[in-house]
Amino acid sequence: MLFLQQLINGLTSGSLYALIAVGYTVVYGIVQLINFAHGEVFMIGAFGSLAVWTIFFQGQTSILILIPMLLGAVAASVGVAVLMERFAYRPLRHAPRLAPLITAIGVSVSLQEIVRLFYPGAKSPLPYPQIDYVSGTALQLGDITLRRSAIFTVGALVVSAVFLWWFINRTKLGRGMQAVSQDPDTARLMGINVDRVIVVAFALGALLAGIAGVAQGLQTNSISQIMGFTAGLKAFTAAVLGGIGNVAGAVVGGLVLGVAESLATQFIPGAFGGTPWKDVWAFVLLIVVLVFRPQGLLGARVVDRA
Amino acid sequence: MTVTHSAPAAPPADGGAVILQASGVIMRFGGLTAVNSVDLTVREGEIVGLIGPNGAGKTTFFNCLTGLYKPTEGQVIFNGAVLPPKPRAVVLAGMARTFQNIRLFNNMTALENVMVGRYCRTSSMALTSIFRGPKFRREEAATRARAQELLDYVGLGRSSELLARNLPYGDQRRLEIARALATDPKVLLLDEPTAGMNPQETRQASDLIFKIRDSGIAVVVIEHDMRFIFNLCDRVLCLVRGETLVEGSPTQVQSDPRVIEAYIGTGDDDEDEGAST
Prior knowledge:
heterodimer; A: mainly alpha; ABC transporter involved in vitamin B12 uptake, BtuC; two-stranded antiparallel sheet; 11 helices; about 5% strand; globular; disordered C terminus; B: alpha/beta; Rossmann fold; six-stranded mixed sheet; four-stranded antiparallel sheet; disordered N terminus
């Protein structure tokens, strides 16, 4: 029973990692850039949804509010991601690899500080609204506690993953993304607008990160401007674990990471068990996988056959 | 596919309208002049051959035409308008190419490769595809149908679901041609389309190129296989060290002593492989 409970907890946090990890991996697959500011895109999504609630629906809890909140989250995330691509990364497209990487760290810090300074009350963590049917209240199934937010999170991952598979394999822009990730020069010679494809990759990652922002708020009932750091780091780990550049790998990596760390917390005995060691075991898993399978669990393939 | 030895149709000579005109194209890399004032005129319905020893600048010239390189000097006029040296603009204007080293999207199926070629001729954008409007579905279906049609056209109809990297070598070359045709070109540039092919595959390639020409597309071919090129082309240009040595009908070029010298060599060019194929 304990095992099942931890499995559920792991799948929940794993789904969250997976939703964010997709953003790292899609962007990496197209432009070979680790966008370290992606955790902040997730954070901005959470704040976007909170802003919608605060401005339009203060005090309400109806499930229907979730839709405008999700839209707000996605709009904020995608907006920020597209702007950062346009003004921070595009000018550095042909610069040495280190330049955009450092820029990404700069963008990350800037976004945190902007939210801290300009979002009202964001200097300390803000409470996140409770929404009917999806907020943290527990469902009791025998001995197992199933939080409603967990169902929302896992469901969001499933829907997103199906959408993503369809988008990459069944649409023109998705084919364009595959082509650019495999050979940008040839793609350009086939008439693909590479800049546009790159923007779409950023937007796609941000879309899932925005949804993840809402899921996180519903789970923890509070959000802060630094929430993107740890989540981003874990999601990046998940992306590398699954094989960076591989969309299916990001999903698998996220779930494996989530489950592994929650099982480790519960079942590793003595001084090395328990919540304080959660992150340690997550990174130990990363190191072990990288030693034996440097390309990641599913292999570092380009964005294809997602 | 039946293998026939069709003789080239009588060159339309001055008949067709000029579709592509490159004048005074110069490409320098630092101190090296890879292409030195090359002129090329291509008329509608024509097959033009580009020959020359290795390193003569043939592929560099193609790269200048297709916007992969920005020529140091000279300009390319396509269908009456100056062509900007940007790959996308070149494709949109109606010029497509294949590559000396096959450059397919290896992890995509043959059909998907060709569908990528349709990219610039279709309009659906992010929002229409997300909401799956009827226009999106129609266009997607049309793209798929057209891609399949092109695969049939080059004789790969039955391989459409295979990954490009798993296709036999000769089929990969034909797939590249199908992908280029998918962009609806008016001029098709082929960079060594028969490199590494056996004689039968080479004949099939000739037939395919004639078929493409007959469908109204002008073709420019880089080749080392002399029999292939002289059988195929209406006009041949011989480049040596970045400059045009001779231009004329296959018979003229074939018998020109300077061409023979450039290929067979006068002692310092001995190892050119062109003469042996």
